[in-house]
Description:
Distance between the termini: 21 Å
Number of helices: 20
Helix content: 55-70%
Low-confidence stretches: 1-5, 7-15, 90-95, 351-362
Shape: rod-shaped
Amino acid sequence: xxxxxxxxxxxxxxxxxxxxxxxxxxxxxxxxxxxxxxxxxxxxxxxxxxxxxxxxxxxxxxxxxxxxxxxxxxxxxxxxxxxxxxxxxxxxxxxxxxxxxxxxxxxxxxxxxxxxxxxxxxxxxxxxxxxxxxxxxxxxxxxxxxxxxxxxxxxxxxxxxxxxxxxxxxxxxxxxxxxxxxxxxxxxxxxxxxxxxxxxxxxxxxxxxxxxxxxxxxxxxxxxxxxxxxxxxxxxxxxxxxxxxxxxxxxxxxxxxxxxxxxxxxxxxxxxxxxxxxxxxxxxxxxxxxxxxxxxxxxxxxxxxxxxxxxxxxxxxxxxxxxxxxxxxxxxxxxxxxxxxxxxxxxxxxxxxxxxxxxxxxxxxxxxxxxxxxxxxxxxxxxxxxxxxxxxxxxxxxxxxxxxxxxxxxxxxxxxxxxxxxxxxxxxxxxxxxxxxxxxxxxxxxxxxxxxxxxxxxxxxxxxxxxxxxxxxxxxxxxxxxxxxxxxxxxxxxxxxxxxxxxxxxxxxxxxxxxxxxxxxxxxxxxxxxxxxxxxxxxxxxxxxxxxxxx
Length: 551
């Protein structure tokens, strides 16, 4: 990354945004790993590495590669441009086994030649001692390469041509008048270089073998074929290396490109755009969207159902009725409720602080999710993934689906732990329960006092003792009023409390449902939504990076 930034700074200083393009492509390839086609992503990373390496090397030299088929006059053109007999010339295949380099200006070129992989024995410096006074100053700052024949029967030659064609700043394709329409060069090399017109030239060699009146028509036919390849802007030069026809015009064009120092930038920009364009076609440019509220609600409901939230909520309501009823009911009969099992205890829920600490890592006794419930969860997860992936390309749809189920193995355990660790709020009795209990016992004592008083009166009457004066209230004897009133008011209070208990139980059940669903929502976010949003974030980073690379 440091080398990339260093190279980017060099280009920025020359008014270029190439550094930003390469950085954009690097970000895109980084986030496309494992999502887009591996071969395509590898191409992107290779382009980033190549641009980074090239930007660290000499900016004063332009690498010009001369490529062509056997017999096209490629090597003779190379010799004519250098003014030296450096490459063997022949018509039998193969004639050129290794690339030969001729350098105008040694300073800073050595690292560049090493990067190009040109052996020292195949390097010649044009202003060497043997060449003093004969060098062409127009090409100062040039590294001219004579590539192996691209139609060689040797596989190693093909590989060498492909490698150097990717590394050169300017490409000069030498064609033969008899084979300029050969599909081998058009399909394998020229057509794939659409978008590289600014760094390409085509040379029609051996023009001296063509009758003068047919030369212009032949050049026009070459231009027609190039236009059919999508390379209509590529200049065509008709030359004869042997007769030195058209060489000056070709040298002038090469010298112009070398002097402007723009060829390196233009080639890298063209390469970056080509790779970024292919990646963009595979990745797509549609804007992503987050999961919809309806889909998230559907997912949360499916998770809650599979976790047994309805079972727990029903148990909370029942348990609250039992506990609050026991605390506020008629004491004479409320103790019967202790004989009934607490549904929350049976589910290993609401065991108190100590119980939760002991049971934290253990499972609850809530029934396992049924096949129908699991199928509902799977469908809800799939619907979220499909909803989010709608409009995106197939690779991203598949990546989102994989992400949506990447943590599915954890769903059951995390749902169970969430339920076991949630405070359901049923341990604490309603604030009014204590007051009711005091009133109930006061009423019981009142009834007992009235009952004992009446019993004493009845015993005295039975023993024929003098009957004491009995106070009355509103014409009713006080003992009778105490007994009947205590019992009736106790029963009425118990009935009123039943209504209050029912309201409280429903309220706590609703609160428990909200609390549990909040916990479930956190789990669905963590296990499903977050992985999906991570993929969407990667998609947006790829889209933004490619957009920068293609500007």
